[in-house]
Structure formats: C-alpha cells, structure tokens
Amino acid sequence: MKILDKEERQAHISHITTEGFKGLVYGSILSTGLFAYLKKRHAGFNRFSTSIKTCIIVMPTISLGAFFADQGSWEFDKQMHSSAYTQGKLLEEYREWNNLSMSDKIFTTLNQYKYEVIITSWVGSLYGSWVYVNRDKIMTTSQKAVQARMYAQAITIVLLLGTILLAMKEQEINKSKPAPLPAWKQVLLDKEAEEKRLLESHKARGSKAESEENSK
C-alpha cells in the first residue's frame, strides 16, 4: 500500500489502530467466555499449567486484534484507491475525528458501539448479580433469583440512562460540526480538483520539455 502524504499516513494509522482495538475488545470477550466455560465445564482445567491458562486468555485476544488491524488496513487501502470521492470522504472523516477533543472522541466511540456495550454490560450484570447473590447460604434459590433480578433491573436502568446521555452528547457534538457538503457537490469539487491537478502536471511537463529544448 502506498501512502502519499503525512495526512494519509496518519489517517491510515488511526484507522488500523481503531480496528485493532475493536478486535482486542472482541477477543478479550471471547477469551473471558472461553476461560469461564472451560473452568466450569472442563474437569481437567485445574490441571492445566499457568502457561496454558495464559494462552487461553492471550491468544484469542491477540489473534482477533491482529486480524481486525490487518482487515482494517486492507479496507483503508481499498477506499483510498477506489475513487477520488471516497478518498476525500475518508480523509474528511479523519480530519473531523482529529479535531475532536479527547472527551468528545470517547463519547463518540461509546455512542458508535453503544449497542455492543449495552448488551455486554447487561449480560455481565446478570451473571455478576447471580454470582454475588449466590454466595448467600441462607436464602433459598427462588429468593436468590428475585434478588439477582432486582440488581439486574437496577443496572439496566443505569445503562438506559447512560444511553440517553450518550445520545444527547452525540447530538451536541454533531451540532458543533460544519454542515456536510451534498454528495453531488463534493463529486464536482473532486472532479475540478483532479482536472486542475492534471492541467498543472501537463504544464509542468511542457515547461520541462521546453527548457530541455532551449538548453540544446
């Protein structure tokens, strides 16, 4: 892949970093689930060495992170070289992202993956609530289920409120952004820029040829 200038190189790094981080998150979720499943269901899990247990956690995480980063690099290269319009759009998205403050970047990322965060947090809250309540040796199973459901409902309300706050913050961020150009206008501007570049390149070659002719 050929990166033409500093901005494109930085946009490429930003894109593959984001995709790689996404892969690490998915990989860590997969690793945690696999580790918990083997620990609970596999009779020989406790006989595994520390190295094997570490590999169960590390390998899926690193593998998915590397895969997502590599896939992100391929997608970036494809978009950058498919057309002048997609290239300009991709760089414009990078400029908008780069101009955001750190807090706005965090809110934007959370809002972008809010459904994944909500579902994962909700499932985790159900499991965590049951594990916490199940430690009580006095309550019956039905009482534990009721108590765990109450905790899960409280956490669900907190997650819903968090979702509303994220949506409000996202609207605030979008209002501060300049209005995007219509697609047809962006295409015309890109075409004009390409024609101007070709004309300047043609003039430069003509001037060079004329200089060489005069030097003879």
From TrEMBL:
Membrane found in the keyword field: yes
Pfam families associated with the record: HIG_1_N
An individual GO BP term: mitochondrial respiratory chain complex IV assembly
Location within or outside the cell: Mitochondrion
Key words, A-Z: Membrane, Transmembrane, Transmembrane helix
GO CC, alphabetical: mitochondrion
Coiled-coil ranges per UniProt: none
Annotated TM spans: 50-69, 150-168
Start and end residues of each HIG1 domain: 87-178
Signal peptide: none
Protein name: HIG1 domain-containing protein
Species of provenance: Suhomyces tanzawaensis NRRL Y-17324
